[in-house]
Amino acid sequence: MQPFHYKALPIDVHFGVGKSAEAKDILWQQGYHKVLIITTPGQKEAGHKLAKQLQDICAGVYPHAVMHVPVAVADKAVAFVKDHDIDCCLALGGGSTIGLAKAIALKTQLPIVAIPTTYAGSEMTTIYGLTEDNLKTTGRDSHVLPKVVIYDPELNLTLPAQISACSGMNGMAHAVEALYAQDKNPIVSLMAIESIKALKSALPVIVKDLTNISARQKATYGAWLAGVCLGSVGMAIHHKICHTLGGAFNLPHAQAHAITLAYSVHYNRNADSEAMDRLAEALGVSSREEVGIAIYRLNESLGIELALKDIGLPTEGPAQVARIVCDSPYYNPREYHYDELKALLQKAYKGLPPV
Questions:
Q1: pLDDT at residue number 136
Q2: Nearest Cα to 123, choosing from 286, 258, 12, 7?
Q3: Distance between CA atoms of 156 and 167, rounded to whole angstroms?
Q4: pLDDT at 317 over 90
Q5: Which residue among 157, 173, 325, 327 has the highest number of C-beta atoms inside a 10 angstrom radius?
Q6: What is the mean pLDDT of residues 97-113?
Q7: 253-267 and 161-179 helices, crossing angle to 10°
Q8: Could you give the 3-state DSSP secondary structure of residue 115?
């Protein structure tokens, strides 16, 4: 075994059905007494329901989180928490909500508590992202890592099939890229394989029966592991493509990840043979040549939209994304080739199989 370096994440994680009902006690034990609940506009009602549970330690609900965390939105939220003497931000929701809480923490160093309601996994990372002038930039900072994460599969029961599927595939993308990360290690790779298997097993059940709590638990478990992977090692070409799709074209985050993953792994199928052989085994196929089509078929079975054009990418998008990715690349186990990447993105644009 080769030498490796593994960073463990210092987060207090609570996991279990009904666990969100204990939020007040958990927050109180952490010493938080003026908690601001952050949601998207669509989750405002859920935020007020949680506010009633928190009672006197809740300072209100801030329902203004949106995709990709625009800098202007973040600046308004920072001003709000400073004006109201908030001592903790509680992010209730998915990547948009947790992303806004992280932007606040980056500027104010306020602690974050996260109660995820999707399977994206960003709650387990020091990664933040901000968008300005159609450019999404990401970074890492220890201040944006939540102090507490509360996982309650019951909160996912109302998550529609399409969002459940796309969010779960978004989570799977983190685990997949952890397998061939520049700083990969055996511990994170074990978590990644377990995550991929859990999500692959749970998501088809969920889209057929949204109230299957056992499948919701398994998907939440897979998402937690995927988040640990994302928070522990670097990502590669897939995340660069998706950050470009989000920043430059404002495409919905989870859908972009779900659609693009098949093409990213197909591009890398022979770049790290050990990682791709393990991925093939986790996906239940016989060869790393099949990993891209396996993910494409999984998306198809989950009812996920298969074409980037159907979620807002314009005709010129594939060429533009390929150029941006090649001009400012993330680490990847193989070199970036513009023509090949553009051709794959054109297939993704049309929803054609990656092979």
A1: 83
A2: 12
A3: 11
A4: yes
A5: 173
A6: 97
A7: 40
A8: strand
- CA 252-151-260 angle, to 5 degrees, is 25
Task: Delimit the domains of the chain by residue range.
Answer: 12-156, 161-350
Predicted local confidence at residue 27, as pLDDT: 97
Nearest of 303, 273, 313 to residue 289 by alpha carbon: 273
Question: Class assignment of domain 161-350?
Answer: mainly alpha
pLDDT tens digits, residue range 183-213? 999 999 999 999 999 999 999 999 999 999 9
Q: Are 145 and 177 in contact (CB under 8 A)?
A: no
8 Å CB contact between 171 and 257: no
**pLDDT value of residue 3:** 73
HSE, CB side, 13 Å, CA atoms: give it for residue 241.
35
Give the orientation angle of helix 161-179 with respect to helix 213-232, to 10 degrees. 40
State the amino acid at position 253 in one-letter form: H
- Which fold is adopted by the domain 12-156? Rossmann fold (3.40.50)
Strands 112-116 and 148-151 turn out to be parallel
Task: Give the closest residue to 176 by CA, choosing from 343, 329, 340, 295.
Answer: 295
Task: Give the global pTM.
Answer: 0.93
Q: How buried is residue 106: exposed, middle or buried, by Cβ count under 10 Å (0-12/13-18/19+)? A: middle
Asked whether 100 and 205 are in contact (CB, 8 A), the reply is no
> Which residues have C-beta within 8 Å of that of residue 281, sequence separation ≥ 6?
none
Predicted confidence band of residue 2 (pLDDT cuts 50, 70, 90): low
